[in-house]
Amino acid sequence: MSKVTVVGAGNVGATAANVIALREVADEVVMIDIKEGVSEGKAMDMMQTANLLDMNTRITGVTNNYEATKDSDVVVITSGIPRKPGMTREELIGVNAGIVKQVTESVLAHSPNAVIVCVSNPMDTMTYLIHKVSGLPKNRIIGMGGALDSSRFKYYLSKALNANPNEVEGFVIGGHGDTTMIPMKRFATLRGVPVTEFLSAEELDKVAADTMVGGATLTKLLGTSAWYAPGAATAEVVEAVLHDQDAVIPCSALLEGEYGENDLCIGVPCVLGKGGIKKILELNLNEEEKALFQKSAEAVHKTNAALPC
Ligand SMILES: NC(=O)C1=CN([C@@H]2O[C@H](COP(=O)(O)OP(=O)(O)OC[C@H]3O[C@@H](n4cnc5c(N)ncnc54)[C@H](O)[C@@H]3O)[C@@H](O)[C@H]2O)C=CC1
Ligand SMILES: O=C([O-])CC(=O)C(=O)O
């Protein structure tokens, strides 16, 4: 029996729980929130789709009751405030650091062996905070950002190529921020054919720029940040871990020398499976990519330095 807890039953948390349940990634999903009745209500609503959608996962919701999260295999942390139009993710640090710290302590008290997937923003810094607060082995803490950013990159590539998004491959490394993401243009392909065969340098630069502000674009349209793709990307990460898929997904991982960085969580290609991050893949970056990575890392270090704890 596998069990996933999702902390925060707001837009992203509830969507992630729903996708995890519909894809039957886990046997049991528990949503927990501080808002009285919200998790319970969303869980009941989702369970009323079970017979319509042939879903066999059991979803429950609780308010503040960590006992119900006991012995989870994976805990997803989405609790915290989202940005509003015009804000950066980094501006959320003050409020969200306090929430993420308290939530990490509470979940680990009941699920000491869980793999933690951090979603709350600023995500790389919140992932780093979880390392500091928990002292867990580094493989058990995964920051979810690259899965989403890569999916957006593939979306914008598919639009520029006028192609089926499922035929497109590509990934994004670096920080999960409007100016820190690094869409890896050099490795993007349409069914294995480099996209540079079909797109000009200018067209590809536009795809990369749109990807970097993908979250901000949606925040402007929606008045709050996005949830469908973030929820689905979170479910992808949880599935890779629970089903021991050895899936290569860019995630925010603690670096200890990789990519020339230390004491930093930032997006790098990871092999995900049982136990969390099985391996970090070190790419042979060219000079331009190295410089972008260094700049991105500096920015994330700077945000980390603003952590209140
Ligand atoms: N890493 C990524 O790729 C993405 C990150 N995000 C981030 O995820 C977070 C959640 O976003 P949304 O779901 O849109 O926000 P939301 O406001 O819809 O939901 C957040 C939920 O967290 C709950 N919460 C607050 N404090 C809590 C606590 N101590 N314990 C349990 N629950 C608590 C709130 O009551 C609320 O229901 C934000 O920080 C957002 O910036 C959003 C999209 C993508
Ligand atoms: O844009 C935001 O603030 C939420 C987020 O991280 C994303 O959708 O990429």
How is this structure best described in words?
This protein is 41% helix and 22% strand. With 309 residues, the protein is α/β, with parallel strands linked by helices. Helix 1 crosses helix 9 (228-242) and helix 6 (146-161) runs antiparallel to helix 7. The radius of gyration is 18 Å and the shape is globular. The chain has 10 helices and 14 strands. It folds into 2 domains: 3-144, NAD(P)-binding Rossmann-like Domain (Rossmann fold), CATH 3.40.50.720; 146-304, Alpha-Beta Complex (L-2-Hydroxyisocaproate Dehydrogenase, Chain A, domain 2), CATH 3.90.110. The strands form 4 sheets. It has a 6-stranded parallel sheet with strand order 3-2-1-4-5-6, sandwiched between helices. A 3-stranded antiparallel sheet has the order 7-10-11, with helices on one face. It has a 3-stranded antiparallel sheet with strand order 12-13-14. The chain has helices at 11-22, 38-47, 50-53, 93-110, 123-134, 146-161, 201-212, 214-222, 228-242, 287-305; strands at residues 3-7, 28-33, 58-63, 74-77, 115-118, 141-143, 168-169, 172-174, 181-183, 189-190, 193-194, 247-256, 262-273, 276-280. Residues 7-13, 32-35, 38, 78-83, 92, 96, 99, 102-103, 119-121, 123, 144-145, 148, 176, 224-227, 230 line the site of 1,4-dihydronicotinamide adenine dinucleotide. This is Malate dehydrogenase. Keywords: Oxidoreductase. It is an enzyme of class 1 (oxidoreductase). Its EC number is 1.1.1.37.
Quick structural overview:
The protein is of the alpha/beta class. It has ten helices and 14 strands. The protein folds into two domains: 3-144, Rossmann fold, CATH 3.40.50; 146-304, Alpha-Beta Complex (L-2-Hydroxyisocaproate Dehydrogenase, Chain A, domain 2), CATH 3.90.110.
